[in-house]
Amino acid sequence: MILGTGIDIVKNKRIKSLIEKYEDRFLKKIYTEAEIEYCQQKINSAASFAARFAAKEAVLKALGTGMRKNSWQDIEVLNDELGKPEVKLSGSTKFRAKELNVSSIFISISHEKDFSVAQVIMEGAD
Fold first, then answer.
1. Feature table: binding site
2. Which residues are catalytic?
3. Residue 13 half-sphere exposure toward CB, CA atoms < 13 A
């Protein structure tokens, strides 16, 4: 049974500007060390950061909480060995997912020159 869905789209230029303006302060507020390391290895790192930002927003929408009582750091989006993105929750986001009885999180992210988008579907037994 689908327990929640979320989708978000982000302008890559917006994230690039925030990174240029605030540098590590922005990166460390939003992303985990593993996410930063992954994205910085990419030729177009701003698009990779934007895609993960959209993914985190989509997770918060699927949980039905928005940023209330949550931390960006509690949502981590990494890729498996084949490149498939996966979501790892911790802290209050993990607690909320348990409250909802979420057993699986499906995520799809994509980016192109100007925009990045992410969709999340949370599944479980209600």
1. 8, 57
2. 61, 111
3. 2
**Which amino acid, one-letter code, is at 112?**
E
Binding-site residues for Mg(2+), in ranges, read: 8, 57
Residue 58 sits at the vertex; the CA angle it makes with 57 and 64, to the nearest 5 degrees, is 90
Give backbone dihedrals phi and psi of 26, rounded to 5 degrees, phi first.
Answer: -70, -50
Whole-angstrom Cα distance, residue 6 to residue 106? 10
Whole-number pLDDT of residue 69: 84
Taken in order of first residue, the domains within the chain and their CATH numbers are: 1-122 (3.90.470.20)
Distance CA 17, CA 21 (A): 6
Strands 2-11, 115-124: pairing kind: antiparallel
Mean pLDDT, 10 residues at a time, over the chain (126 residues)?
Answer: 97 98 96 98 96 98 91 96 96 96 97 97 88
pLDDT at 126 (0 to 100) = 59
User: What are residue 78's DSSP bridge partners?
Assistant: 86
